[in-house]
Fold:
Amino acid sequence: EIHNSSQEKDNDGGAIQLEGQKEAGFYAQLDNAFSPDGYYTEGPYYQRYAMYPFLIFAQALAYKKPELEILQYRDGLLFKAVYALINQTSSAGEFFPINDSQKGMSLASRELVNAVSMAYHFGGKDPELLSLIEAQDEVPINDSGLSAAKGISTGKSEPYEFKSIELRDGADGKDGAIGILREDELTLVMKYAKQGMGHGHFDRLGFLLYNGTKEVVQDYGSARWVNIEHKDGGGYLKENKTWAKQTVAHNTLVIDKDSHFDGNVEVAERFPGTPYYFTSADGIQIVSAKELNAYKGVQMQRTMALIDIEELENPLALDLFSVQAPEDTRYDLPVYFLGEFMSSNHSFQAKKNLTPMGENDGYQHLWLEAEAELSSNIFQMTWYNPKNFYTITSAVQVGDQALLTRIGANDPNFNLRRDPGLIHRRTGGNTLFANVYEVHGHYDYDTEISVNSYSSIQSLEIIHESEDRVAIQLEIKSGEKYQFAFSQNDHNQSSNHTIQTVDEQLEWTGVHDFKKMNN
Structure:
């Protein structure tokens, strides 16, 4: 028997009614497992795993009980889930390693071979899906596979267009989200969704950055070697809990060396992130979200953007991390860059003896390899990840430090990858971290010639910071200056904003403003 009285917990632990939900059975699974956008709270790795039984049972119902119209339920929710999975992949077709994810899982998995063909056959015969099926190079032996094969053989295939998208989390779509920005070859992912239950990581406002098929700023994923018996029989390693889940293992802010929600899953589940602003307009794409509960008495907001600047060969990734917190708070902002260190505008002092950076919350697995006291107005570091160069430029405050780290401390069985990291450390009260990520140049192995291997950024300056508004000024070496201003507490598109800087008064209408300054 199916009833219409299902209840779901709200952010404060109370019960709310979700209209149209069922109390038990397959309908209840559909109502509670997926958001209205088709997002699955445990992340794409586990959504991929769940899609096969959902779709196979739905297919059986479609054949045996067509009057239920199960494949049209909730506006075609199961097909939305397939598209949500597709959109959570890099240019290599691999799923973003959100939560407990083993890297490398992709659209070529057996579950997606079935799912994409089903979405094509039953979901309207979208020709863009055929290009993905061609890349999969196989179809299921059923009506869906036959339909897909016919579509390909008759030349109906069209390239799949990956777009910027915000995927809401929660059964009613009100429990956070993930934001995906795509511009040229760059893909930026920011996570502000629910915890993800037992498979979730403490990584609110964390991000990943890809250049084409390559990870530039990575998420570690899970500490597990699936079906490889050498590593604890293929199950999750103990380091999955002590390292991979901890906040310091991700590209997000750590306060006083403690993980978000003090590492408590039940508390984290009650308080999802808060989406603030998302736009995918041409030339500048922005995602902004808040986290108000990860630390007591601390409010965090991260605003990230992909911005086209005509003088540069690639879009820039802008990162503004605003925090309101008590004085003497210690901030660590890690960046897990993938590649080889090239240079920095500061001198790092290498450690003669490596020691773990802490005793818990993931710090026990980090070696401190080198550190630098930041003395100039900006910090810059360039690394190389074949075949391109990448530079992070950071605005600096007095007393800031840059720490070069290496994963692998307290790991006697070598269960963890020895990946490098960079931590921007600061102590203070309310503050704003401002960073720009730049993709530039290339190296040709055949000619052994490098092109444009140095950053084009001359300066990065915070010209205003408050709880309500932030603004930065960026200057490139050719002399052009650009300003970006953002309203953090008013996202009304008709609101007028004014900022008084040292040199001028900035005015704009709407949430953000980006402009080239007159020379």
Remarks:
- The longest strand covers residues 431-440.
- The helical segments are 25-33, 44-64, 73-87, 110-122, 127-136, 143-153, 238-244, 265-270.
- The chain has a mean pLDDT of 94.
